[in-house]
Amino acid sequence: MFSSSGSLARRLRGGIARLRRSLRVQLVSWVVLTLAGAICVNLYLSFRSATAAAQLVADRTLLASARVIAEAVHVDHSGSVEVEIPPAALEMFDTGFGDQVFYRVTTPWGNLLSGYPDLPTPLVALKGEDLTFRDHGIRALMLDHPVVGLGGDGTIAVTVGVTHGSQYAIRRQLWLSGFANQLALVLLAGLVTIIGLQRGLSPILRLRDAVRQRGRDRLDPFPTSMVQTELQPLVHALNDHMESVQNQMAAQRRFVANAAHQLRTPLALIATQAAVAAREVDIRQRDEALQALQKSTRQVTRLAGQLLALSRAEPGNLRPRLDNTDLASLTRSVLENIAEEALKRGIDLGFDNGGPVNVTGDATMLGELVVNLVDNALRYTPPGGSVTVAVKSLQNTAILMVEDTGPGIPEGERAQVFERFYRVMGTQTEGSGLGLAIVREVVDSAGGTIELRDGKAGGLLVRVALPLGQ
Ligand SMILES: Nc1ncnc2c1ncn2[C@@H]1O[C@H](COP(=O)(O)OP(=O)(O)O)[C@@H](O)[C@H]1O
Ligand SMILES: [Mg+2]
Description:
The protein is an alpha+beta fold. Helix content is 53%, strand content 18%.
């Protein structure tokens, strides 16, 4: 019971959330809201004008009636004032709404000639006024009328009042008919807007269907003409995105092909060396063959390790781990591991340690960065040379410098050596061309910069700057 009502509430909430996200619902709501506002204003304005029109009609009738009554007042030869109310004066209010009519005729001296003595009189002559008489709401009008032969100021006052039945009926009718016309117009406008909206939205729906129907491998651009001008930036952005995905996929394919090619050569060598070792009967020669086999295996292992490092360093492949790493101690431990190798090659490996330098970044990848730079320096420096590594902090950056006394890299190739599988022509030393590509990915993802310069002794100087950590 609870779970079903809970899920109903969830579904309802989900439905409402979807509706609020719907562009169509949003646009229609705005249109409906505007129209509703227009209808309310219209209701008020047409009510006011209907009221005014109905009052005008009522006041005219009251005036006509008062005139007819006033005309009937006369002074006879003996000088006394007389009035006989003509039936027509009252019959003009008989419009089928059961209205009651009241009147009062008074002399200049305030004496009642005819009618209700207590009928209230409007303050201003000839101007209709809403008053209350014996619990009836009435519309009343007063007329001053001159009578020949009368003393005083020569005018009698005629007041006529009538209940509101007919006036309100006229008002209602005027109001309703005006309002009905406007309502019909507004509804028509709403309908046309909704149809227009539907038509306006249809290109988006077509675009959606076109995107849905595409196969995974189809990345050619959508024609921008399929949507309205305002939406074309969206299609442009979609096309740009697909193009970058396409480029990325091409790069991936090239990389996989290169990697397979790079792995195939040493693996074929390993197979040959294994076959030779298996055939060899002389123990010493077999030993030599096995050592060569071990060396090739190490090479393949290193290459596989580099491929792995590269795929890890690629943006988006791993969530970047933001360790706080001391670059100086990291570099020292890399140098300790590699010192024996340097000794074997007869290279003087030096470390200029400027104390702890904290950087934020993935510690493993920062290790790869240092290893690859130092490995290159050792590899390409001939025996008897020297490699100097320095770590220090400068303003807001951590600086790592690796300088060697090798052949250096010609200016024109300094950009290309960072490309995957790129090696300077004529490089004899074994390698895959992946080292500097890894270095650049790591530097990029740590938000740093890298420069290749001429070393003091003619070799290469690599300068890496990374943002300082906390
Ligand atoms: N310290 C250096 N001195 C001279 N040349 C270098 C140095 N480091 C890199 N290079 C050149 O740059 C190329 C690319 O280096 P890298 O990407 O590490 O690949 P690899 O070392 O596997 O060839 C190398 O083949 C080499 O020609
Ligand atoms: Mg290298």
